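Instructor's aside before we start: the two examples that follow are unrelated to each other. I chose them only because their records fit on one page, so don't look for a connection. First example below.
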Amino acid sequence: MFDKLFGRGKKKEESKSGPDIFFGRYSDNNKPLAKVNRWTEADNLFKEKKYTDSFDAFFDYLRDDTVQNVVYERNGAEGRFEFYQGSKIIRGHFNNEVLKAEVTLARMPQPSVPVMRRLLEMNFSLYYSRFALDSDRLCMRFDSDIETASPSKLYYGLKEVATKADKQDDLLVQDFSMLQSADSEHVISVPDVEKEVKYEFLQKWIKQALDSIAAVDADKFSGGIAYMLLSLIYRLDYLIAPEGKMLNDLEKIAGIYFKKDERPVIEKNRDMVSEFKKIQALSREEVFKYLFRSKYTFAIVAPQQYKTIADSIHGANQNMFWYRDNNYPLFANHISEYGMSYCQYSYSLPKAITELFHLYMMVNHADYFTALGYKIMYYDTGNNKFDTDSIVEKIKEIQTRWKDKYPLLDFKTQNLKFDNLVNFNYSFTVEMELLNTDAK
């Protein structure tokens, strides 16, 4: 009894002492209640024409206190701000007449017609901002009169600048050799040990999926193969968290499947496999270039009603049954993982849901987290043994932390199955499907 008591206490302490590693795409759908209230204050102050006070509340709303992604200073009617979005810093200022923001994309020492044509074409897709050339700097700019700078306009205008710039800077430098990277010194390098682990598991997961696909009939298993490839995209996006060209390559692979055309699934699967083989062929040095850490302010995807998430989980589980019942556990686990990982990839999820999803990934890919230096192992694959107490304890901890914002969130841990991984995944995702995220 004493061993169990002391052991559990030790595990609780260790679970908090993992390495400081960022996973997945940033979600700004994670504001505590106090931050949500600041948005309401900003909106009310703007309606009262207290514009600078509205800016105070708005930029406080944007600031994620856990990562300190926003710097804001005001002196009377004037002020300055800057915030981070991946490899870019957006800087701005305001006075009693106008608010302006700007971000540097790259440097262009010599004028280039192809570059300018690319930017001109992309300008047509922008709603709030525009590309600009300042001497040799390629920029994006946003500005607004104070009287029209409502919180909603600022949010969507600054988000457009930030997310477009963060994506386009890498692609422009990659596509045009005359361009030079600029203003990315704030990016934090990932430790070499972490890079090695990520490269090793990138190769392991791709090989595992491709070998499994090669061992089954491409036509009969076309649906399961598609699920496996898509869940692999979302797993790499979340657990490896690549940036730059590799992130863009993963998005292109997903685009092959979801493109609205008449091609059969078997052909799309073949093309996705071909693209994965290209990633598999990348050298360590090439992969390492896309592994770095940075701060974010905006999600690149939008929130959804929880019913959309529940439907995704339910649909995947319905398609999992045949593979489970016919003894294809790897396919079954990939399909269960797809239901949640698709949502994590495609939507800006509430932080409570992401934390539960992260626990799910720590159970399913315990060897990866152990290799990264995490002390606690929720599932021992070799012995098919779950750390039941730690899993239940972690779920309760997440629910307690978010109780104020999601008082109806009720994950029934007594319904979890711990006899094997397939049944655990199904029971876990069913509980995720039934959650109520209605706000207080």
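Example two begins here.
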Amino acid sequence: MDNQFFKNLEKKTGVKMTDVFELANSLQGANFKDEKTVRNVIKRVSQIANKPINAELEDKIVNSIIKDGKQLDFGTISNMLNNKK
């Protein structure tokens, strides 16, 4: 992809692409059945997206991924962050 695309995306979202790539690299080979791993990923995504979450929402996301078998991806976490009550 071209560099201008990433610059535009950073400008629009406020999220640094280097942060996104670092997170993506850290996810390779990660064990998403491990609660600690899932919590760390959720916290990191929350930081990158600048969307703080409370313990209750974090627990919901963790349970959804570990116990309910939802896939861990940016879309799943983003939807949960945007639908927080």
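Helices lie at 3-13, 17-27, 35-49, 55-66, 74-82.
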